[in-house]
Amino acid sequence: MGLENFDVIYYFVLLFVAIFAGFIDSIVGGGGLITIPALLACGVSPHLAIATNKLQSVFGSLTAAFTYYKSTTLPHLIWGVFFTAIGAAIGSYGVLFVEDDSLKIIILICLTFTFLYIAFKPNFGKEESKAKIKNIKIFHIICGLTLGFYDGFLGPGTGSFWIFVCVFLLGFSMKQASINTKILNFSSNIVALFIFIWQYKILWDIGLLMGFGQIIGAFLGSKLVLKTKGHFIKILFLIVVALTIIKVSWDYFIK
């Protein structure tokens, strides 16, 4: 299915959905929560929606990564990119063959814990704190493989998980975490995209159209983060995580 099979209105709907998703994703992650349901609502099959979503999300994560470039702590991210890429390759290959219901309940539990922990910890991420994991390689081996796999397998909420672990385990502020995780997000997106190109198919016309929207949204969102102190990030983070919990719960218990 390509754009030639769509009503003209879908061009505009998917473009504006991508702009909004790129804006949100560049700040707190969770863009897939917006774009994948939009693709499904337009009649795209689930696996094809996931594959096409990777194409458009690459543009958003790359734009945010470039915009944040001077503010990132690049040396430690090299390890993160490497292990995240490995995890994403395994996850994106596995999603083509595995039913994801069992994984969804695990994700639901983790998201709920994340939401409750941050909601009831007022100072979480306001300032830098003492790191719980001193060895940065160990952090990236564990989190890179785990979150890279999840991003390749399902995706929605990956950016939110990255922000949480960076604040909780590395002692970053929410703003620091938001900035540093975009390169990791891009690495898992691009690897997953290559796997889907190799093993499956992608709606290139839709993906490129939405990719243009992602560039606009990600640029605006990342510029907003850099120009402010980032105090709004926690509130937006909680909103996105709550919506992700609702979406995953709906998929698991209702559908």
From TrEMBL:
Give the domain of life: Bacteria
Asked if Membrane is a keyword of the record, the answer is yes
Q: Which Pfam families match?
A: TauE
> What keywords does the record list, in alphabetical order?
Cell membrane, Membrane, Transmembrane, Transmembrane helix, Transport
Its chief place of residence is membrane
Topology term for the membrane: Multi-pass membrane protein
Membrane-spanning segments: 9-28, 76-96, 102-120, 156-174, 183-200, 206-225, 232-250
Localization recorded for this chain is: Cell membrane
Q: Write down the InterPro entries for this protein, in alphabetical order.
A: TM_pro_TauE-like, TSUP
Alphabetical GO CC annotations of the entry are: plasma membrane
Record's family? Belongs to the 4-toluene sulfonate uptake permease (TSUP) (TC 2.A.102) family.
Name of the molecule in the record:
Probable membrane transporter protein
Task: Name the species this protein comes from.
Answer: Campylobacter novaezeelandiae
* Taxonomic lineage of the native organism: Bacteria, Pseudomonadati, Campylobacterota, Epsilonproteobacteria, Campylobacterales
